[in-house]
Amino acid sequence: MTSFHFPHLVCLGAACLLSSVPFANTAWAQEARTPANPGGPEPSQPSPGGDELHPPRLLEFVQAEYPPAARAQGRSAHVGLRITLDATGKVTEVEVVEPAGHGFDEAARAAAERFSFAPARRGNTRIAARVPYSYAFEPEPLAAAARVPPGSEGAIAPQASPAASVALEAAPGETAMEVTISGAPRGRQLEQSAQAVRVVDTEQAQRQSSDLGQVLARTEGVAVRRSGGLGSEERFSLNGLTGDQIRFFLDGLPLELSGYPFGIANVPVNLVERAEIYRGVVPIRFGADALGGAVNLVSDEDIDGTHGSAAYQTGAFGTHRLSLAARHLDEPSGVFVRLDGFADHADNDYPVDVEVPDERGRLSPARVYRFHDAYDARGAHLELGLVDRPWGKRLILRAFVTDYDKELQHDAVMTIPYGEVRYGETSLGGSLHYAQTFARMLSLDVVGGYTHGRQTFVDASRCVYSWFGQCVRARVEAGEIQSPPRDQLLIDQNAFGRINADIVLHPQHIVRVSSSPTFTTRTGDERLQADPMARDPLTARRDVFSWVNGLEYQLDLLDDRLENIAFVKQYVQVARSEETVAGGLIRDRNRDTDRFGFGDAFRFRFLDGLYAKASYEWATRLPRPDELFGDGVLVLANLQLEPEVSHNLNLGVTLDSGPTTSGAWQGELNGFSRNADQLIVLIGSNRASSYQNVFAAHSKGLEAAARWTAPGEFLGLGGNVTYQSFRNTSDQGAFGAYEGDRIPNQPYFFANASARLAHRGVAAANDELSLDYDLHFVHEFYRGWESIGRPEFKQTIDSQLTHTLALTYLVRGEPVTLSFSAEVQNLTDEDVYDAFGVQRPGRAAYFKVSAEL
């Protein structure tokens, strides 16, 4: 057996893994424990008169400004406040009852005056109330880490604590009650760090019917194009780069190794708390070889109290989506359990416009319904472990099983219908996550896991199908896509690990180390092999070992006005395979790769809500196993593939005013450049193809976004626009003749707009009726190279303008919150095309109900 070799590995990989003491932010995030039941009241208590007394509930927390002089001296403080609310929940007075001096009192009062509350109630009657509140200012990194998502690397500068215990001050003779309130969204701290990241919160989307792909496509710089309805393949693009050039994660682990093998657009949105979109520059903690960026989906990251949720959606084209989630923490023992699951089904039988032949073979236009495009998916995830023990902040075992099955309706350009082709995958596995803090300076975050995947592909029909779903004649040889027929099973086994370590030399100086090895082995079975006596090519050995290491240094200066993160990465890949040569002999094919990359991210804060960012990375993407090894039938192996590389640059400025008397204002302007080389493309015919490094391309562009939210949040307006010029820069090779052309079948100008109108207190004190409108525009673009042919004869994807309208009624009850939503997508029934002109669904109506405990 051929052994693995790791050239130059000791220079970074072994040093990172064996010589360093690794630590991570995750453990520190648990050091300052979030109180139980964050964000919601404790059970109400009856007053002596028989009416229930309901405490006020914080709707909007405002982060206080940390006094600069106190920050410089490392001072901490707790300021005791008494907040007076009127019967509408408005703050009318803030008194300092426990002063701390050094500027803390004024900062706490100014922040509390901008708090927003749901009013207190006696029975169904709104009442005025006084709320004692302790505002905590903590200069240590532990406090800042507590407000950063586990595994994240946000700003660690001193800030005010966003969580505290609040009591309703009752009338004489009544019983006072306690309620815990929570602070600002955690994702905002990531956006205000030096990292090139955009955070998409899914709270509103969870109550509506748009899938995760549609939600992400409303973000500047992002395009998500699908080849059909729910469950169809998607093409995710970020600043021009697409597919595997963008890496996808769930809670920091690769998405395909976390129980979601069917793509990011099909992940149930109700199981995702937010999405972090990293543009071109990817933090080392992901251990990723991404070329153009990464998307990290964050699930429910709270580990406290008892919580449950359920959502069901139904609507057009036979769509049914169900998701369930529950978690519980036993405080005395630290035992934690979380369970979530989902089940999706869609017939996708929407009408499309095609050309059908008559009895003489002449083509004529017709409107037909898709008949072989159904999608089914289901899955469950279980977490069980211990938290906040002396020997560890977190030890959690996670197990999952998912399965999906998809029918394939037609070829890539929607000219030939299929009636029996189908594919799918079953994925199961688990991981073990451990986190601990040592001496308050060092922290460790370790994850290891295993995933087993079984991919199936069946193309064995002996019928020729028409667009009307009829078998019109028998085939000479089976196989609708091509002959010979195929009934393939591919089995992937993946073992992976990730070690993240933090060393805080000083609150302003942090060193991070990351090491992420992954081993993949593939085998298979062609169950319709033409020669049963010959060796099945799918059984050949296919082994790939990848190892991504990183070293990072973060510097914070000038009272956190300046933050800089410099890093270096190492990419190692070792591939071992077999191939059959003439005479039936087997020979080994090996390939070793060892590359380095580096980058830097910089942020300077001019004012509290105004800052500029610049970031750069020389990025690398290692070839996938299927690109190296092919599929054993039609796609040949190519062990000579080189990694894709790119110089990625971002420059931008952001304004985030926070709440003001005129509302909350947000704006962002960002320029980007992606100069990519050695891009991998599938080249060949339908008989024999292989992946090859064939061209270079340069994407540069500008994206802008703005949003305004009125005081009281009754009205919100927003929009964004993206322009990108993604052009071929190869002057030789297969695409040398098209130097300077735009990359075909790629949108270059698209925009989004949104409006939200909300009214609270419609039928009850804590209910809300909202109307949401979303507009999506994509400018026309060519399907092929723009230098070929005359403009009037080119194949184009026409400009598309779609509208979505959603009406949602939210009832914030105790202890259950309910929401009911009716949504109409593609309101004007626009003809929408995607993926080489494939027609997508027209107007569609959906209804969704959700409950949260």
The CATH topology of the largest domain is: Maltoporin, Chain A
Helix content: under 10%
- The total count of helices amounts to 8
Q: CATH homologous superfamily of the largest domain? A: TonB-dependent receptor, beta-barrel domain
Radius of gyration: 28 Å
Mean pLDDT: 84
CATH architecture of the largest domain: Beta Barrel
How much β-strand is present in the residues? over 45%
Description:
- The protein has 853 residues and is mainly β.
- It has two domains: 9-16 and 206-852, TonB-dependent receptor, beta-barrel domain (Maltoporin, Chain A), CATH 2.40.170; 35-181, TonB (TolA/TonB C-terminal domain).
- Helix content is 6%, strand content 53%.
- It has eight helices and 51 strands.
- The strands form eleven sheets. It has a 22-stranded antiparallel barrel.
- Strand 49 and strand 50 form a beta hairpin.
- The chain is globular.
- It starts with 12 loop residues before the first helix and ends with a strand.
Task: Provide a brief overview of the structure.
The protein is mainly β.
